[in-house]
Amino acid sequence: MENKRKFLIPLDKEFEFKGVCALCATVASMLRENVDDVALAYVIGGTYLAEHVKNVDLRAQHVMESDLFKNLRQQHIKKDIEPMLEKAREIIKRIDPSLPLRELILEGNPVTELVHLIKGQGYSTVFIQRRVYDNPLGAMLGSIPAGIIHARVPVTVYLPGIKIENGFPWERPIPLNHILVPVDGSEDSLAAVTEAASLVAASSDSFCITLLHVLNLEEIPAEMDASWLKEKGREILQETSTLLKGKVKDSVKIETELRIGMPAETIAETANELDADMIIIGRKGRRAIGEIIVGSVGLDLLRKNLNPALVLVNA
After folding, report:
1. What residues form DSSP beta bridges with 103?
2. For the residues 15-22, what does the mean pLDDT come to?
3. Which domains does the chain have, with CATH numbers?
4. Among 139, 174, 178, 248, whose CB has the most other CB atoms within 10 angstroms?
């Protein structure tokens, strides 16, 4: 039986969070009894105090324990944080009222506190919002999402894409019927396959999982015969397809794609061409070593305004 999953949604006032809450509720609903904790977390930093308490060293213990500090904190929670938590809770409960939902208000450096929370309470999966505005630089991560993604914490990260942001009513689960999984034979890509299989295992909906192997143009000089690389790619797809078939119901459609190109660009183009709802990829990949937390392909995908949701799976 699959280990119980614990989901965390860090909220950030600078980001719209409807999409990330809807994605979390949908995924938690798909995994059903395998999720035993869904937490909304907000970390109070020092910015709100700095706006009200001038010329005071906020590091002083007597200030932190003063009635002024406590009153400002309670005002901030009541005015700014509680309405945000209420709105997020409403979105999640509309999609699945049965989810075990709780709220956490922490205090300190947001990234540090969230990393401590993830490690200390064993959260397996984090749902993070990012800006997906129409800008030439692509998607933008705030300091809190970036800090979590690059931290040395063994979590799987879900990020909503443009399709989720732009258009689904928040009263029902988001359609996630077509999942694209890039594979390269690495442990991390096999973990991505397992994540995809877990999502569709308990659902009665119809699903298609497309396995994609990209032959990297940087590894294929113009004068080189790439036929053996193509054959190796087909072997990876066949082995992965066989593995996946053993994890899902016969009703799940499994397709394979072998393409040549730059990995991140080819993955994004394939996802758009197939109208995929979600891309699930290993956080590192075949060429990752030692201290690398997010591989180069994952980083490139993080910077793109992707239509589907993006999932970075921890092996």
Report:
1. 40
2. 86
3. 1-169 (3.40.50.620), 175-315 (3.40.50.620)
4. 174
